[in-house]
Amino acid sequence: MQIPVPVDFAEANSAGYPAKKEDGMETDSVFQMAASNIRFGTGCTAEIGMDLRDMSAGRTMVLMDPNLRSLPVAEVVMDSLRQQGIDFVLFDEVSVEPTDASFQHAASVAADGNFDAFVAVGGGSTIDTAKAANLYSTWPADFFHYVNAPIGDGQPVPAPLKPLIAVPTTAGTGSETTGVAIFDYVEKQAKTGIAHRYMKPTLGIIDAENTKTLPPAVAASSGLDVLSHALESYTAMPYLDRPKPEGPLHRPAYQGSNPVSDIWALHALKLMAEFLPRAFADTSDDEARANMMLAAAIAGIGFGNAGVHLPHGMSYPVAGMVESFQPKGFDVDHPLVPHGMSVILNTPAVVRFTAPACPERHLQAAAALGADTYGVSTDDAGEVLAERVIYFMQLMQMPNGLEHIGYTAENIPALVEGTLPQHRVTKLAPRPATEKDLTFLFQQSMKIWPKTSTGVCDAL
Fold first, then answer.
1. Where are the domains of the chain?
2. I need a surface site. Which of 99, 333, 361, 365 has the fewest CB within 10 A?
3. Rounded to whole angstroms, how far apart are CA atoms 170 and 172?
4. Closest by Cα among 342, 369, 373, 341 to 359
5. Any idea of the CA torsion for 107, 332, 171, 52, to the nearest 10 degrees?
6. Do 75 and 48 form a contact (C-beta atoms < 8 A)?
């Protein structure tokens, strides 16, 4: 299907949406594209010491996933810093799913250490922790000062932060390109975060060598996070429907879909569709692993400027309220729903719900994922896209709905309650979702497919 290029960006419906404005609300007419520098290529991790030298970095805080300490990537990073005479301190007290307490601990260490540069080596949890440590040690404030409203005050970051180099070791979050840091707010059993373009890493080092030890289950979950990022970015409400900010500092990092983010999102969907099945089936497939890392970064550039919406908003209580589920293939000793899994479990129900708001975009996304959309009616856009998402879920051996990770109908009110405060993302949905709508979406997500049409068994 040929993707139409909007000509008149003054009209929201030129991008495939019905124009909609709340009475009396002045809407924005501007979007801003911000992205980290990224470096891509096998072996580029070894250049990190030279980067810090060129930045005139002195004392550097290296935040690292503790599981990486004995792996080659850790030695490559530390050797590179030593060779360039960089004074560094290693911090490996990073939580797999960061909490408000773990963010504050890292920030306290950063403040006490008087660092002038940061390096993050690991997945999204490590990179997000580094962003928080950089923020609070550079611009100290009460913890909830920067946290997204309505849970926190949602105040903007006042000025640029110190240099942060991010070295992802998974292919999914795209955190090396975004200004978002997500954490579990333990007291409320909910996920929230901090978002501002000043939090974007200075440089992302994307080196496929760093995913050689990635287990298939981790590759599957993180790869489906790429799908979610790109799909939600492409189908988010248009930036022209966002409220006009009081000034550029207050324009959110998540602005709504826009013609630049759209390009990144569609390409990320195509890369994911081609290379995730290969990366999952064969962890030694270097080409597939490299392209999945590229897809994660590309999706990150897209959603880092457009945003995600309902599947992510619904995922936060799903991850925060889990009681007993421990995923196969993950080295954990506590209940955990991996982020990509918690998001994708909501996606089929959501795309059926949002498709009427912009059916053409839902069909374009389905086509990018490899679905045959020739002659398909726009009335069927949601179902076609949902079935294509389910195809990849089954291929990646995802659980068949929330009931397979321990939730029942009795949990739905609490899941809805946990979703309602996630305004940063839920208000970007192309179709508003009421409390009643969210209840229906969680009901539909309890069991997603009646049988495994591809022959892949349910992963419990």
1. 37-211, 215-445
2. 333
3. 6
4. 373
5. 30
6. no
- State the Cα angle at 217 between 261 and 366, rounded to 5°: 35
Beta 37-40 vs 180-185: how paired, if at all? unpaired
Q: Which residues pair with 351 in a beta bridge?
A: none
Task: Quote the pLDDT of residue 12.
Answer: 39
Q: Is there a contact between 80 and 46 (Cβ–Cβ < 8 Å)?
A: yes
Residue from 129, 41, 22, 12 nearest 427 by CA: 22
Residue 204: what are its φ and ψ, rounded to 5°?
Answer: -110, 125
| Whole-angstrom distance, CA of residue 361 vs CA of residue 381 | 9
Q: Nearest-CA neighbor of 136 among 125, 151, 146?
A: 146
Mean pLDDT split into 10-residue runs, the chain, 460 residues: 36 42 80 90 97 95 93 96 97 91 97 97 95 98 94 94 96 92 85 91 95 91 97 97 92 94 97 97 94 96 95 94 91 88 98 98 98 96 98 97 97 96 93 97 96 39
CATH number for region 37-211: 3.40.50.1970
- Distance between CA atoms of residues 21 and 447, nearest Å: 35
Alpha helices in 282-346 (DSSP H): 286-306, 310-320, 339-344
Q: Specify the fold of 215-445.
A: Dehydroquinate synthase-like, alpha domain (1.20.1090)
CA separation for the pair 79, 83 (Å, rounded)? 6
Q: Which two tokens stand for residue 439?
A: 């209840």
Beta bridge partners of 181: 194
> Are the C-beta atoms of residues 162 and 110 closer than 8 Å to each other?
no
Q: What is the pLDDT of residue 23?
A: 59
For position 96, what pLDDT does the model report?
79
